Amino acid sequence: MSFNQAAEELNVTPGAVSRQIQSLEHYLGKPLFHRHHKRIELTAVGRQYYAEISTSLEKIAAASNRIRSEPRRDKISICAYPTFAIRWLIPHWPALYKAFPGLDIQLTTSLNPADFEQAGFDISIQVLPDGETKKGFVIDKLLDVITYPVCSPELADRVSGPQDLEAVTLLHESPRPTDWPRWLKTAGITTLNPNQGLNFESNDMALHAAREGLGVAIAIDALVQSEVRSGHLVRLFDVSRRSRFPFQLVSPARSANDPTVRALRAWLVAEGEKSNRASQ
User: Fold this and answer.
1) How far is CA 46 from each of CA 17, 18, 59, rounded to the nearest angstrom?
2) Which residues contact 152 (CB under 8 A, 6 or more apart)?
3) Phi and psi, residue 112, nearest 5°
4) What does the alpha-carbon distance between residue 275 and residue 270 come to, in Å, rounded to a whole number?
5) Disulfide-capable partner of 171 in 7, 16, 27, 215 (CB 3.0 to 4.6 Å)?
6) pLDDT digit string (tens) for 100-138?
7) Pairing assessment for the beta strands 123-127 and 75-80 based on DSSP bridges
C-alpha cells in the first residue's frame, strides 16, 4: 500500500511505479487503487485481482529463487577433430577461459563421430552438410570450409601457376582424401593425377610437411589463417573452393538447453564468425 516502498524495493522512482499502475489500470479498464492524500488503498476490483494473481506471483518468485540458488555448472565436455582442436580451438583457449573463468572444459579429440550416449559429450564439432538438422540435436554452423593449396615460401618461388603443380609433390591427408581432386576440378586442371604424392594421417601433419618444404598441401582457410599471415605458409593462386560441408556445433537437446552450454555455444559461434569474416 505504498508506491514509495514499492519503488524502493524495485530500485525505480515512485513516479515509475505510478505510471506502471496507471498503464495496468488502462489495460484492465478498471481502477485498482483509491488514491487519497498521502495514502492509497485497493478498490474492490484491486483486491479481487490481487487475490487471483498473488499465487502465480509467488510461484514466479519461488522459481526464480530456486534457479538463483542452484550451483553453476562448472564442467563441459567437447569432442573435436584432432587438427581442428590443435589449429583452431587451442589458439582460442586463452580468450575462452577469460570469457568463462572457472569453467572446466574437457576436450577429447577423435576422427570418429561423437558418441553422445556412451561418452556424454555436451558439444561435438563435426563436418556436416550445410543446413543439416537432426531430431533431438541442436546444430549451428561454426566455420566455413574454404580450401586452397599452401606451401613453404621457398617452394612458392618455384610455383608460378597451377601448371607448375606437376613438378612438385602433392601432400594428402587420410581424413579428407577428396580435397585435392575437388580443388583441381574447381581450378580446371585435368592433366594432373590428383592421387600422386605423399599421404599423411592428419591434416596437421600434411601442413607441417608443407611448411618444411616437402610439397604442396590443401589447407582449410580458417585453420591456417595465422600461418599465412605470418608468412610461414604461402597461399598459392587465387582459386579457392567452398565446401558444402562446414564445421558445425552439435549438441544433444538436453545439453543445448543448459544455460552454460548455450552460452559457450554462442561464444564459439561468434568466434567462428570472426574467422569466417577473415577468410581470404
Assistant:
1) 16, 15, 20
2) 210, 211, 212, 213, 232, 233, 234
3) -90, 155
4) 9
5) 215
6) 998 999 999 998 888 888 888 999 999 999 999 999 999
7) parallel
Tell me what pLDDT residue 64 has.
85
The rounded distance, in Å, linking the Cα atoms of 29 and 24 is 8
User: Domains of the chain (ranges plus CATH)?
Assistant: 3-69 (1.10.10.10), 75-145+245-277 (3.40.190.10), 146-242 (3.40.190.10)
User: What is the predicted pLDDT for the residue at 120?
Assistant: 87
C-alpha cell at 274: 570472426
Query: Is the model's pLDDT at 88 over the cut of 90?
Result: yes
Three-class DSSP category at 256: helix
What residues form DSSP beta bridges with 147? 220, 241
The C-alpha cell of 262 is what? 548455450
pLDDT value at position 42? 94
Helices (H), the chain: 3-10, 14-28, 44-69, 82-84, 90-99, 116-119, 153-156, 179-187, 203-211, 221-230, 253-256, 259-277
Q: What SS3 class is residue 218?
A: strand
Taking each helix axis as running N to C, give the angle between helix 14-28 and helix 3-10, from 0 to 180 degrees, rounded to the nearest 10: 110
User: How is residue 136 annotated by DSSP?
Assistant: T
Which of 246, 240, 248, 244 has its CA nearest to residue 280? 240
